[in-house]
Design goal:
The complex is a heterodimer of chains A (246) and B (398). Chain A is an alpha/beta fold and 246 residues long. Chain A has 6 helices and 13 strands. In chain B, β8 and β9 form a beta hairpin. Classes of the chains: A alpha/beta (246), B alpha+beta (398). Chains A and B meet through α2 and α5 of A and α1 of B.
Protein backbone atom coordinates (compact mmCIF):
# COMPACT_ATOMS: atom_id res chain seq x y z
CA UNK A 1 0.00 0.00 0.00
CA UNK A 2 1.32 3.43 -0.94
CA UNK A 3 0.95 6.08 1.73
CA UNK A 4 1.42 9.81 1.21
CA UNK A 5 1.85 11.73 4.46
CA UNK A 6 1.57 15.51 4.49
CA UNK A 7 4.27 17.05 6.65
CA UNK A 8 4.06 20.67 7.65
CA UNK A 9 6.24 22.80 9.88
CA UNK A 10 5.15 24.75 12.91
CA UNK A 11 7.12 26.91 15.31
CA UNK A 12 8.43 25.26 18.44
CA UNK A 13 6.01 26.04 21.24
CA UNK A 14 8.64 28.08 23.09
CA UNK A 15 8.98 30.50 20.13
CA UNK A 16 8.14 34.14 20.63
CA UNK A 17 5.37 35.13 18.25
CA UNK A 18 5.42 38.55 16.60
CA UNK A 19 4.90 40.06 13.17
CA UNK A 20 6.67 42.27 10.65
CA UNK A 21 5.79 44.32 7.57
CA UNK A 22 3.03 46.22 9.24
CA UNK A 23 1.66 43.09 10.91
CA UNK A 24 1.12 41.29 7.60
CA UNK A 25 3.91 38.73 7.99
CA UNK A 26 4.96 36.31 10.72
CA UNK A 27 8.40 37.25 12.02
CA UNK A 28 10.52 34.14 11.57
CA UNK A 29 13.68 35.58 13.14
CA UNK A 30 15.00 33.22 15.78
CA UNK A 31 12.08 30.84 15.34
CA UNK A 32 12.93 27.16 15.59
CA UNK A 33 10.62 25.06 13.47
CA UNK A 34 9.49 21.55 14.33
CA UNK A 35 7.44 19.00 12.43
CA UNK A 36 3.80 19.77 13.16
CA UNK A 37 3.07 17.27 15.96
CA UNK A 38 -0.24 16.03 14.51
CA UNK A 39 1.51 15.24 11.22
CA UNK A 40 4.47 13.59 12.92
CA UNK A 41 3.09 11.77 15.95
CA UNK A 42 -0.15 10.52 14.45
CA UNK A 43 -0.32 10.64 10.63
CA UNK A 44 3.27 9.63 9.91
CA UNK A 45 3.61 7.06 12.66
CA UNK A 46 0.34 5.31 11.80
CA UNK A 47 1.35 5.14 8.14
CA UNK A 48 4.68 3.62 9.18
CA UNK A 49 2.95 1.09 11.42
CA UNK A 50 0.61 0.00 8.63
CA UNK A 51 3.53 -0.25 6.22
CA UNK A 52 5.42 -2.37 8.74
CA UNK A 53 2.40 -4.68 9.12
CA UNK A 54 1.39 -5.05 5.48
CA UNK A 55 4.26 -3.76 3.38
CA UNK A 56 4.26 -0.82 1.00
CA UNK A 57 5.91 2.55 1.08
CA UNK A 58 5.59 5.83 2.95
CA UNK A 59 6.30 9.05 1.07
CA UNK A 60 6.13 12.42 2.78
CA UNK A 61 5.11 15.59 1.01
CA UNK A 62 5.80 19.14 2.14
CA UNK A 63 4.98 22.41 0.44
CA UNK A 64 7.87 24.64 1.42
CA UNK A 65 11.29 26.08 0.70
CA UNK A 66 14.77 24.62 1.23
CA UNK A 67 14.58 25.92 4.81
CA UNK A 68 12.08 23.13 5.48
CA UNK A 69 14.50 20.35 4.56
CA UNK A 70 15.47 19.89 8.21
CA UNK A 71 11.97 18.94 9.29
CA UNK A 72 11.67 16.71 6.23
CA UNK A 73 14.90 14.93 7.22
CA UNK A 74 13.39 14.32 10.63
CA UNK A 75 10.39 12.60 9.04
CA UNK A 76 12.83 10.46 7.05
CA UNK A 77 14.80 9.70 10.22
CA UNK A 78 11.61 8.50 11.88
CA UNK A 79 11.18 6.03 9.04
CA UNK A 80 9.58 7.44 5.87
CA UNK A 81 11.07 5.93 2.71
CA UNK A 82 11.32 9.06 0.63
CA UNK A 83 10.23 12.66 0.64
CA UNK A 84 8.90 15.18 -1.82
CA UNK A 85 9.09 18.93 -1.37
CA UNK A 86 6.97 21.18 -3.56
CA UNK A 87 9.26 24.16 -3.91
CA UNK A 88 7.07 27.08 -2.84
CA UNK A 89 6.05 29.01 0.24
CA UNK A 90 2.95 27.40 1.72
CA UNK A 91 0.91 30.57 1.66
CA UNK A 92 -2.58 29.34 2.33
CA UNK A 93 -4.55 26.13 2.68
CA UNK A 94 -5.96 26.04 -0.84
CA UNK A 95 -2.58 26.62 -2.49
CA UNK A 96 -1.03 23.90 -0.30
CA UNK A 97 -3.86 21.43 -0.90
CA UNK A 98 -3.78 22.07 -4.64
CA UNK A 99 -0.05 21.28 -4.82
CA UNK A 100 -0.46 18.10 -2.78
CA UNK A 101 -3.45 16.96 -4.82
CA UNK A 102 -1.61 17.52 -8.11
CA UNK A 103 1.31 15.42 -6.91
CA UNK A 104 -0.98 12.72 -5.52
CA UNK A 105 -2.94 12.55 -8.77
CA UNK A 106 0.20 12.13 -10.83
CA UNK A 107 1.70 9.47 -8.56
CA UNK A 108 -1.27 7.46 -7.31
CA UNK A 109 -1.50 6.74 -3.57
CA UNK A 110 -3.81 4.43 -1.64
CA UNK A 111 -4.07 6.80 1.27
CA UNK A 112 -3.18 10.44 1.93
CA UNK A 113 -2.74 11.27 5.61
CA UNK A 114 -2.51 14.65 7.32
CA UNK A 115 -2.51 15.75 10.91
CA UNK A 116 -5.89 17.12 12.02
CA UNK A 117 -4.42 20.64 11.97
CA UNK A 118 -1.16 22.53 12.33
CA UNK A 119 -0.51 23.91 15.77
CA UNK A 120 0.26 27.41 14.49
CA UNK A 121 -2.67 28.28 12.20
CA UNK A 122 -5.03 25.50 13.34
CA UNK A 123 -6.72 25.69 9.94
CA UNK A 124 -7.78 22.05 9.61
CA UNK A 125 -8.46 22.68 5.95
CA UNK A 126 -5.81 20.98 3.83
CA UNK A 127 -7.03 17.38 4.27
CA UNK A 128 -10.60 18.13 3.22
CA UNK A 129 -9.48 20.19 0.27
CA UNK A 130 -7.07 17.50 -0.95
CA UNK A 131 -9.88 14.93 -0.76
CA UNK A 132 -12.20 17.19 -2.76
CA UNK A 133 -9.55 17.91 -5.37
CA UNK A 134 -8.86 14.18 -5.70
CA UNK A 135 -12.54 13.25 -5.66
CA UNK A 136 -11.92 10.86 -2.75
CA UNK A 137 -13.66 10.30 0.59
CA UNK A 138 -12.32 12.29 3.55
CA UNK A 139 -12.33 11.04 7.13
CA UNK A 140 -11.45 13.79 9.56
CA UNK A 141 -10.25 13.77 13.19
CA UNK A 142 -9.57 10.05 13.15
CA UNK A 143 -8.33 8.57 16.41
CA UNK A 144 -7.95 4.93 15.36
CA UNK A 145 -7.55 3.07 12.09
CA UNK A 146 -7.28 -0.63 11.29
CA UNK A 147 -6.86 -2.01 7.79
CA UNK A 148 -8.26 -5.21 6.36
CA UNK A 149 -7.30 -5.57 2.74
CA UNK A 150 -8.32 -2.32 1.11
CA UNK A 151 -10.94 -1.48 3.74
CA UNK A 152 -10.17 0.76 6.65
CA UNK A 153 -12.21 0.80 9.85
CA UNK A 154 -11.77 4.21 11.40
CA UNK A 155 -12.88 5.67 14.71
CA UNK A 156 -13.43 9.35 15.14
CA UNK A 157 -14.56 11.28 18.14
CA UNK A 158 -17.90 13.00 18.04
CA UNK A 159 -19.64 14.99 20.73
CA UNK A 160 -20.33 12.54 23.52
CA UNK A 161 -19.35 9.44 21.59
CA UNK A 162 -17.35 7.66 18.94
CA UNK A 163 -18.29 7.31 15.32
CA UNK A 164 -17.00 4.26 13.47
CA UNK A 165 -16.76 4.42 9.71
CA UNK A 166 -15.60 2.04 7.03
CA UNK A 167 -13.97 3.33 3.91
CA UNK A 168 -12.23 1.75 0.96
CA UNK A 169 -8.97 3.00 -0.45
CA UNK A 170 -8.15 5.40 -1.90
CA UNK A 171 -9.13 8.04 0.66
CA UNK A 172 -7.81 10.99 2.64
CA UNK A 173 -7.60 10.99 6.42
CA UNK A 174 -6.77 13.59 9.06
CA UNK A 175 -5.28 12.10 12.21
CA UNK A 176 -5.93 13.20 15.78
CA UNK A 177 -4.52 12.19 19.15
CA UNK A 178 -4.91 8.47 19.79
CA UNK A 179 -4.07 7.38 16.23
CA UNK A 180 -0.52 6.38 17.24
CA UNK A 181 2.20 7.01 19.79
CA UNK A 182 5.01 9.45 19.13
CA UNK A 183 8.13 7.78 17.76
CA UNK A 184 11.49 9.25 18.63
CA UNK A 185 13.95 8.75 15.80
CA UNK A 186 17.21 7.02 16.64
CA UNK A 187 20.77 7.76 15.60
CA UNK A 188 20.77 5.02 12.96
CA UNK A 189 17.59 6.51 11.49
CA UNK A 190 19.21 9.94 11.42
CA UNK A 191 22.19 8.53 9.53
CA UNK A 192 19.93 6.59 7.15
CA UNK A 193 17.94 9.77 6.44
CA UNK A 194 21.09 11.27 4.93
CA UNK A 195 20.84 9.02 1.91
CA UNK A 196 17.06 8.72 1.51
CA UNK A 197 15.71 10.53 -1.57
CA UNK A 198 14.28 14.06 -1.10
CA UNK A 199 12.83 15.07 -4.44
CA UNK A 200 12.23 18.78 -5.07
CA UNK A 201 9.35 19.43 -7.43
CA UNK A 202 8.43 22.86 -8.84
CA UNK A 203 5.01 24.18 -7.82
CA UNK A 204 2.20 24.13 -10.36
CA UNK A 205 0.18 27.22 -11.26
CA UNK A 206 -2.56 27.83 -8.74
CA UNK A 207 -5.07 30.57 -8.23
CA UNK A 208 -4.44 32.62 -5.08
CA UNK A 209 -7.62 32.85 -3.09
CA UNK A 210 -6.38 34.40 0.15
CA UNK A 211 -4.95 37.84 0.95
CA UNK A 212 -3.37 38.43 4.33
CA UNK A 213 -4.48 41.77 5.70
CA UNK A 214 -3.17 41.71 9.24
CA UNK A 215 -2.13 39.47 12.09
CA UNK A 216 -2.69 40.36 15.70
CA UNK A 217 -1.82 38.74 18.98
CA UNK A 218 -4.55 37.72 21.39
CA UNK A 219 -5.17 40.31 24.10
CA UNK A 220 -2.78 40.06 27.03
CA UNK A 221 -4.11 38.08 29.97
CA UNK A 222 -5.82 40.35 32.45
CA UNK A 223 -5.38 39.97 36.15
CA UNK A 224 -7.32 37.25 37.97
CA UNK A 225 -10.01 38.36 40.36
CA UNK A 226 -10.72 36.16 43.32
CA UNK A 227 -14.22 36.10 44.75
CA UNK A 228 -14.88 34.65 48.15
CA UNK A 229 -16.57 31.26 47.90
CA UNK A 230 -19.46 32.50 50.04
CA UNK A 231 -20.07 35.59 47.98
CA UNK A 232 -21.97 34.19 44.98
CA UNK A 233 -23.87 37.42 44.52
CA UNK A 234 -20.63 39.29 43.84
CA UNK A 235 -19.55 36.58 41.36
CA UNK A 236 -22.83 36.90 39.46
CA UNK A 237 -22.56 40.66 39.56
CA UNK A 238 -19.02 40.60 38.09
CA UNK A 239 -19.91 38.07 35.41
CA UNK A 240 -22.98 40.03 34.44
CA UNK A 241 -21.84 43.64 34.68
CA UNK A 242 -18.09 43.51 34.20
CA UNK A 243 -17.30 40.45 32.08
CA UNK A 244 -20.73 40.65 30.45
CA UNK A 245 -20.80 36.91 29.82
CA UNK A 246 -24.11 36.14 31.53
CA UNK B 1 10.17 16.06 39.95
CA UNK B 2 8.22 18.79 38.19
CA UNK B 3 7.71 18.76 34.41
CA UNK B 4 11.03 18.96 32.59
CA UNK B 5 10.96 22.33 30.84
CA UNK B 6 14.61 22.37 29.81
CA UNK B 7 15.72 24.43 26.86
CA UNK B 8 19.42 24.99 26.24
CA UNK B 9 20.93 28.44 26.65
CA UNK B 10 22.57 29.68 23.46
CA UNK B 11 23.86 33.18 24.11
CA UNK B 12 26.34 33.27 21.22
CA UNK B 13 24.13 31.54 18.63
CA UNK B 14 26.21 28.40 18.77
CA UNK B 15 23.38 26.55 17.08
CA UNK B 16 24.36 28.29 13.84
CA UNK B 17 27.58 26.24 13.95
CA UNK B 18 25.72 22.94 14.19
CA UNK B 19 24.44 21.01 11.18
CA UNK B 20 20.78 20.10 10.89
CA UNK B 21 21.84 16.54 11.64
CA UNK B 22 23.55 17.64 14.86
CA UNK B 23 20.38 19.42 15.94
CA UNK B 24 18.30 16.36 15.18
CA UNK B 25 20.68 14.17 17.19
CA UNK B 26 20.34 16.57 20.11
CA UNK B 27 16.57 16.83 19.80
CA UNK B 28 16.24 13.05 19.62
CA UNK B 29 18.26 12.55 22.77
CA UNK B 30 16.44 15.34 24.58
CA UNK B 31 13.00 13.98 23.66
CA UNK B 32 13.98 10.51 24.80
CA UNK B 33 15.35 11.88 28.08
CA UNK B 34 12.28 14.00 28.77
CA UNK B 35 9.95 11.11 28.06
CA UNK B 36 11.78 8.26 29.71
CA UNK B 37 14.30 9.54 32.23
CA UNK B 38 13.26 12.90 33.69
CA UNK B 39 10.08 11.48 35.25
CA UNK B 40 11.96 8.69 37.07
CA UNK B 41 15.47 9.90 37.72
CA UNK B 42 14.89 11.42 41.16
CA UNK B 43 13.30 8.22 42.39
CA UNK B 44 16.17 6.03 41.18
CA UNK B 45 18.70 8.50 42.54
CA UNK B 46 17.03 8.59 45.92
CA UNK B 47 16.88 4.79 46.14
CA UNK B 48 20.44 4.50 44.77
CA UNK B 49 19.02 2.13 42.16
CA UNK B 50 20.36 1.57 38.67
CA UNK B 51 17.64 2.09 36.02
CA UNK B 52 18.65 -1.07 34.20
CA UNK B 53 15.68 -0.95 31.85
CA UNK B 54 17.21 2.14 30.23
CA UNK B 55 20.21 0.17 28.94
CA UNK B 56 18.28 -1.37 26.03
CA UNK B 57 16.62 1.96 25.33
CA UNK B 58 19.99 3.73 25.18
CA UNK B 59 20.97 1.09 22.65
CA UNK B 60 17.80 1.61 20.65
CA UNK B 61 18.24 5.36 20.32
CA UNK B 62 21.90 4.88 19.38
CA UNK B 63 23.57 6.35 22.46
CA UNK B 64 26.06 3.48 22.72
CA UNK B 65 29.08 4.03 20.49
CA UNK B 66 27.55 6.82 18.41
CA UNK B 67 30.75 7.14 16.38
CA UNK B 68 31.21 3.37 15.86
CA UNK B 69 30.79 2.57 12.14
CA UNK B 70 27.64 0.92 10.86
CA UNK B 71 29.62 -2.24 9.99
CA UNK B 72 29.83 -2.92 13.72
CA UNK B 73 26.28 -1.90 14.58
CA UNK B 74 26.95 1.73 15.46
CA UNK B 75 25.31 4.70 13.79
CA UNK B 76 28.61 6.12 12.50
CA UNK B 77 28.03 9.70 13.65
CA UNK B 78 30.74 12.31 14.12
CA UNK B 79 32.38 13.40 17.35
CA UNK B 80 30.22 16.51 17.79
CA UNK B 81 27.15 14.29 17.66
CA UNK B 82 28.72 12.06 20.30
CA UNK B 83 29.37 15.16 22.41
CA UNK B 84 25.81 16.40 22.00
CA UNK B 85 24.39 13.04 23.07
CA UNK B 86 26.57 13.07 26.19
CA UNK B 87 25.51 16.65 26.87
CA UNK B 88 21.83 15.82 26.69
CA UNK B 89 22.22 12.73 28.88
CA UNK B 90 24.24 14.50 31.56
CA UNK B 91 21.89 17.46 31.37
CA UNK B 92 19.52 15.00 33.02
CA UNK B 93 21.95 13.03 35.18
CA UNK B 94 25.70 12.41 35.24
CA UNK B 95 25.07 8.78 36.17
CA UNK B 96 23.07 8.22 33.00
CA UNK B 97 25.86 9.80 30.96
CA UNK B 98 28.42 7.67 32.80
CA UNK B 99 26.63 4.46 31.85
CA UNK B 100 26.62 5.54 28.25
CA UNK B 101 30.11 6.99 28.02
CA UNK B 102 31.70 3.99 29.72
CA UNK B 103 29.99 1.70 27.21
CA UNK B 104 30.95 3.92 24.27
CA UNK B 105 34.41 5.24 25.04
CA UNK B 106 35.83 2.73 27.46
CA UNK B 107 34.44 -0.55 26.14
CA UNK B 108 33.45 -0.14 22.50
CA UNK B 109 36.26 2.27 21.66
CA UNK B 110 39.14 -0.03 22.73
CA UNK B 111 37.53 -3.06 21.07
CA UNK B 112 37.08 -1.03 17.89
CA UNK B 113 40.55 0.58 17.94
CA UNK B 114 42.72 -2.07 19.60
CA UNK B 115 40.77 -5.26 18.93
CA UNK B 116 40.95 -7.61 15.95
CA UNK B 117 38.16 -8.16 13.45
CA UNK B 118 36.79 -11.22 15.27
CA UNK B 119 36.58 -9.29 18.55
CA UNK B 120 34.86 -6.36 16.84
CA UNK B 121 32.29 -8.60 15.18
CA UNK B 122 31.71 -10.60 18.34
CA UNK B 123 31.19 -7.75 20.81
CA UNK B 124 30.45 -4.41 19.14
CA UNK B 125 26.99 -5.11 17.67
CA UNK B 126 25.75 -6.47 21.03
CA UNK B 127 27.23 -3.52 22.91
CA UNK B 128 25.63 -1.10 20.41
CA UNK B 129 22.13 -2.45 21.01
CA UNK B 130 22.54 -2.71 24.77
CA UNK B 131 22.20 -6.49 24.72
CA UNK B 132 25.62 -6.42 26.40
CA UNK B 133 26.63 -3.92 29.04
CA UNK B 134 30.35 -3.37 29.45
CA UNK B 135 32.75 -1.90 31.97
CA UNK B 136 36.38 -0.79 32.02
CA UNK B 137 38.91 -1.84 34.62
CA UNK B 138 41.90 0.45 35.02
CA UNK B 139 41.80 2.03 38.50
CA UNK B 140 42.97 -0.13 41.42
CA UNK B 141 42.57 0.35 45.16
CA UNK B 142 46.12 1.73 45.44
CA UNK B 143 46.51 3.10 41.92
CA UNK B 144 44.17 5.93 40.94
CA UNK B 145 46.06 8.89 39.51
CA UNK B 146 49.02 6.57 38.96
CA UNK B 147 47.51 3.77 36.84
CA UNK B 148 50.93 2.78 35.51
CA UNK B 149 51.73 1.41 38.96
CA UNK B 150 48.97 -1.19 38.68
CA UNK B 151 49.55 -4.62 40.13
CA UNK B 152 46.89 -6.58 38.25
CA UNK B 153 48.75 -9.04 36.08
CA UNK B 154 48.43 -12.00 33.77
CA UNK B 155 50.67 -14.96 32.99
CA UNK B 156 50.92 -16.84 29.73
CA UNK B 157 49.90 -20.42 30.54
CA UNK B 158 50.33 -21.70 26.99
CA UNK B 159 46.71 -22.14 25.91
CA UNK B 160 45.30 -19.29 28.05
CA UNK B 161 46.22 -16.34 30.26
CA UNK B 162 45.89 -16.46 34.03
CA UNK B 163 44.62 -13.13 35.37
CA UNK B 164 44.98 -11.93 38.97
CA UNK B 165 44.31 -8.62 40.65
CA UNK B 166 41.55 -6.20 41.65
CA UNK B 167 40.01 -3.07 40.22
CA UNK B 168 37.95 -0.48 42.04
CA UNK B 169 35.49 2.34 41.28
CA UNK B 170 34.28 0.62 38.13
CA UNK B 171 31.09 2.07 36.63
CA UNK B 172 28.59 -0.54 35.37
CA UNK B 173 30.69 -3.38 36.87
CA UNK B 174 28.07 -5.39 38.82
CA UNK B 175 25.72 -5.53 35.80
CA UNK B 176 28.35 -5.84 33.10
CA UNK B 177 28.48 -8.74 30.66
CA UNK B 178 32.05 -7.97 29.70
CA UNK B 179 34.92 -6.02 31.21
CA UNK B 180 37.84 -4.49 29.31
CA UNK B 181 40.58 -5.02 31.88
CA UNK B 182 44.06 -3.53 31.86
CA UNK B 183 46.77 -5.68 33.41
CA UNK B 184 50.52 -6.21 33.12
CA UNK B 185 52.10 -9.20 31.42
CA UNK B 186 55.16 -10.96 32.81
CA UNK B 187 57.39 -8.26 31.30
CA UNK B 188 55.40 -5.54 33.05
CA UNK B 189 53.72 -4.22 29.87
CA UNK B 190 50.08 -3.15 30.09
CA UNK B 191 47.61 -4.98 27.84
CA UNK B 192 43.86 -4.98 27.51
CA UNK B 193 41.90 -8.21 28.03
CA UNK B 194 38.21 -8.88 27.52
CA UNK B 195 36.90 -10.70 30.58
CA UNK B 196 33.40 -12.14 30.36
CA UNK B 197 30.86 -12.47 33.13
CA UNK B 198 30.77 -16.03 34.43
CA UNK B 199 34.47 -16.78 33.94
CA UNK B 200 35.64 -18.78 36.91
CA UNK B 201 37.32 -16.67 39.57
CA UNK B 202 35.84 -13.39 38.29
CA UNK B 203 33.43 -11.43 40.48
CA UNK B 204 32.12 -7.86 40.48
CA UNK B 205 30.66 -6.88 43.85
CA UNK B 206 28.75 -3.62 44.10
CA UNK B 207 30.22 -0.66 45.97
CA UNK B 208 27.54 0.98 48.04
CA UNK B 209 27.15 4.13 50.10
CA UNK B 210 27.86 6.69 47.38
CA UNK B 211 26.55 10.20 47.95
CA UNK B 212 27.09 10.86 44.25
CA UNK B 213 26.13 9.17 40.95
CA UNK B 214 23.51 7.27 42.88
CA UNK B 215 21.58 6.26 39.74
CA UNK B 216 24.69 4.66 38.26
CA UNK B 217 25.99 1.33 39.49
CA UNK B 218 29.61 1.03 40.62
CA UNK B 219 31.61 -1.99 41.67
CA UNK B 220 34.90 -3.74 42.07
CA UNK B 221 36.37 -6.28 39.70
CA UNK B 222 38.11 -9.16 41.41
CA UNK B 223 40.25 -11.63 39.46
CA UNK B 224 41.29 -14.73 41.32
CA UNK B 225 43.18 -16.97 38.90
CA UNK B 226 40.79 -16.19 36.04
CA UNK B 227 41.51 -18.20 32.93
CA UNK B 228 41.16 -15.77 30.02
CA UNK B 229 41.18 -17.26 26.50
CA UNK B 230 44.09 -16.01 24.44
CA UNK B 231 41.77 -14.66 21.76
CA UNK B 232 40.45 -12.17 24.35
CA UNK B 233 43.66 -10.12 24.42
CA UNK B 234 43.35 -6.84 22.51
CA UNK B 235 46.22 -7.24 20.04
CA UNK B 236 46.62 -3.87 18.37
CA UNK B 237 47.90 -1.64 21.14
CA UNK B 238 49.64 -2.05 24.47
CA UNK B 239 51.31 0.13 27.09
CA UNK B 240 49.73 2.85 29.22
CA UNK B 241 48.92 4.80 26.05
CA UNK B 242 46.23 2.24 25.19
CA UNK B 243 43.92 2.89 28.18
CA UNK B 244 44.81 6.60 28.03
CA UNK B 245 43.54 6.67 24.45
CA UNK B 246 40.18 5.41 25.72
CA UNK B 247 40.22 8.07 28.41
CA UNK B 248 40.73 10.77 25.78
CA UNK B 249 37.47 9.69 24.19
CA UNK B 250 35.66 9.44 27.52
CA UNK B 251 36.96 12.78 28.81
CA UNK B 252 35.87 14.39 25.56
CA UNK B 253 32.35 13.13 26.32
CA UNK B 254 32.60 14.34 29.91
CA UNK B 255 33.58 17.84 28.76
CA UNK B 256 30.34 17.99 26.77
CA UNK B 257 28.36 16.25 29.50
CA UNK B 258 29.43 18.40 32.43
CA UNK B 259 28.56 21.46 30.38
CA UNK B 260 25.10 19.91 29.96
CA UNK B 261 24.58 19.79 33.72
CA UNK B 262 25.74 23.42 33.99
CA UNK B 263 23.22 24.40 31.32
CA UNK B 264 20.44 22.57 33.15
CA UNK B 265 21.26 24.33 36.43
CA UNK B 266 21.35 27.72 34.73
CA UNK B 267 18.09 27.05 32.89
CA UNK B 268 16.30 26.21 36.12
CA UNK B 269 17.81 29.08 38.09
CA UNK B 270 16.92 31.61 35.38
CA UNK B 271 13.33 30.42 35.21
CA UNK B 272 13.00 30.42 38.98
CA UNK B 273 14.46 33.92 39.27
CA UNK B 274 11.65 35.25 37.10
CA UNK B 275 8.91 33.38 38.94
CA UNK B 276 9.93 33.73 42.56
CA UNK B 277 8.82 36.99 44.12
CA UNK B 278 10.29 38.61 47.25
CA UNK B 279 9.74 42.18 48.39
CA UNK B 280 7.09 42.38 45.65
CA UNK B 281 9.51 41.83 42.76
CA UNK B 282 10.88 38.74 41.04
CA UNK B 283 14.22 37.86 42.61
CA UNK B 284 15.76 38.20 39.14
CA UNK B 285 15.34 41.95 39.61
CA UNK B 286 17.99 42.00 42.33
CA UNK B 287 21.53 42.84 41.33
CA UNK B 288 23.02 39.99 43.33
CA UNK B 289 20.82 37.48 41.52
CA UNK B 290 21.68 39.03 38.17
CA UNK B 291 25.37 38.86 39.01
CA UNK B 292 25.06 35.12 39.57
CA UNK B 293 23.06 34.55 36.38
CA UNK B 294 25.30 36.79 34.27
CA UNK B 295 28.42 35.02 35.47
CA UNK B 296 26.82 31.62 34.87
CA UNK B 297 25.86 32.36 31.26
CA UNK B 298 29.28 33.90 30.63
CA UNK B 299 31.05 30.75 31.81
CA UNK B 300 28.60 28.51 29.93
CA UNK B 301 29.14 30.46 26.72
CA UNK B 302 32.93 30.29 27.04
CA UNK B 303 32.70 26.56 27.69
CA UNK B 304 30.36 26.07 24.72
CA UNK B 305 32.89 27.71 22.42
CA UNK B 306 35.77 25.69 23.87
CA UNK B 307 33.82 22.46 23.62
CA UNK B 308 32.57 23.00 20.11
CA UNK B 309 36.10 23.78 18.92
CA UNK B 310 37.33 20.65 20.65
CA UNK B 311 34.64 18.73 18.73
CA UNK B 312 35.92 20.14 15.44
CA UNK B 313 39.49 19.20 16.35
CA UNK B 314 38.44 15.71 17.36
CA UNK B 315 36.52 15.29 14.10
CA UNK B 316 39.73 16.18 12.27
CA UNK B 317 41.74 13.79 14.45
CA UNK B 318 43.79 16.72 15.76
CA UNK B 319 42.62 17.11 19.37
CA UNK B 320 45.51 16.51 21.76
CA UNK B 321 45.14 14.76 25.11
CA UNK B 322 46.16 18.02 26.79
CA UNK B 323 43.40 19.96 25.00
CA UNK B 324 40.87 17.36 26.12
CA UNK B 325 42.19 17.60 29.69
CA UNK B 326 41.75 21.36 29.70
CA UNK B 327 38.16 21.10 28.47
CA UNK B 328 37.24 18.35 30.92
CA UNK B 329 38.78 20.22 33.83
CA UNK B 330 37.30 23.59 32.92
CA UNK B 331 33.80 22.35 32.18
CA UNK B 332 33.47 20.25 35.32
CA UNK B 333 34.76 23.12 37.42
CA UNK B 334 32.34 25.68 36.00
CA UNK B 335 29.51 23.15 36.24
CA UNK B 336 30.19 22.65 39.93
CA UNK B 337 30.31 26.40 40.57
CA UNK B 338 27.16 26.97 38.55
CA UNK B 339 25.34 24.19 40.40
CA UNK B 340 26.24 25.86 43.70
CA UNK B 341 25.18 29.32 42.52
CA UNK B 342 21.95 27.95 41.03
CA UNK B 343 21.25 26.25 44.34
CA UNK B 344 21.50 29.63 46.05
CA UNK B 345 19.12 31.29 43.60
CA UNK B 346 16.63 28.48 44.20
CA UNK B 347 16.84 29.12 47.93
CA UNK B 348 15.41 26.36 50.05
CA UNK B 349 13.78 24.76 47.03
CA UNK B 350 17.27 24.15 45.69
CA UNK B 351 17.94 21.45 48.23
CA UNK B 352 14.82 19.48 47.32
CA UNK B 353 14.32 16.92 44.59
CA UNK B 354 11.78 19.20 42.92
CA UNK B 355 14.83 20.59 41.15
CA UNK B 356 17.88 18.79 39.81
CA UNK B 357 20.61 21.21 40.91
CA UNK B 358 21.54 19.52 44.16
CA UNK B 359 21.68 16.15 42.39
CA UNK B 360 23.88 17.65 39.69
CA UNK B 361 26.10 19.16 42.38
CA UNK B 362 26.53 15.84 44.16
CA UNK B 363 27.11 14.00 40.88
CA UNK B 364 29.72 16.49 39.76
CA UNK B 365 31.77 15.76 42.86
CA UNK B 366 32.46 12.36 41.25
CA UNK B 367 32.96 13.82 37.81
CA UNK B 368 35.56 16.30 39.09
CA UNK B 369 37.56 13.36 40.45
CA UNK B 370 37.07 10.50 38.02
CA UNK B 371 38.72 10.17 34.62
CA UNK B 372 41.65 12.24 35.81
CA UNK B 373 41.25 14.38 38.89
CA UNK B 374 40.92 18.12 38.73
CA UNK B 375 44.53 18.47 39.91
CA UNK B 376 45.99 15.89 37.55
CA UNK B 377 44.40 17.65 34.58
CA UNK B 378 46.00 20.87 35.77
CA UNK B 379 49.37 19.13 35.85
CA UNK B 380 48.75 17.86 32.31
CA UNK B 381 48.25 21.45 31.15
CA UNK B 382 51.27 22.50 33.18
CA UNK B 383 53.41 19.83 31.58
CA UNK B 384 52.08 20.70 28.14
CA UNK B 385 53.02 24.35 28.37
CA UNK B 386 56.36 23.94 30.19
CA UNK B 387 57.47 20.62 28.83
CA UNK B 388 58.27 19.53 32.40
CA UNK B 389 56.22 16.76 34.04
CA UNK B 390 55.35 17.44 37.68
CA UNK B 391 53.38 14.30 38.47
CA UNK B 392 55.91 12.64 40.73
CA UNK B 393 58.44 13.73 43.27
CA UNK B 394 60.90 12.09 45.59
CA UNK B 395 59.92 11.61 49.18
CA UNK B 396 61.83 14.35 51.04
CA UNK B 397 64.64 13.13 53.34
CA UNK B 398 63.65 13.14 56.97
Amino acid sequence: MKFLVCISKSPDTTSKIDFTENNTKFNETGVQYIVNPYDEWYALVRALELKEQNGGSVTTITVGTAADDSIIRKALAIGADNAVRIDAEANDAYFTAFQIAEYAKANGFDMVLTGKETINYNGSQVGGMVAELLGQPFVSLATKMEMSGTTATIEKETVGGVEIVEVNTPFVLSAAKGMAEQRIPNMRGIMAARTKPLEVVPAVECEELVDFEAYELPPAKSECKYVDADNVAELVNLLHNEAKVI
Amino acid sequence: MATDLYTHPDYFNMDDLLSEEHKLVRETTRSWVKQNVSPIIEDYYERAAFPEHLVKQLGEIGAFGPYIPETYGGPGLDQISYGLIMQELERCDSGLRSTSSVQSSLVMYPIWKYGNEDQRQKYLPKLATGEFLGCFGLTEPDHGSNPGGMISNFKDMGDHYLLNGAKMWISNAPKADIAVVWAKNEEGRIHGLIVEKGMEGFSAPEMKGKHSLRASITGELIFDNVKVPKENLLPNKSGLGAPLGCLDSARFGIAWGALGSAMDCYDQALRYSKERTQFNVPIGAFQLTQKKLAEMITEITKAQLLTFRLGQLRNEGKATSAQISMAKRNNVEIALKIAREARQILGGMGITNEYSVMRHMANLESVVTYEGTHDIHLLITGMDVTGIPAFTREMPNK
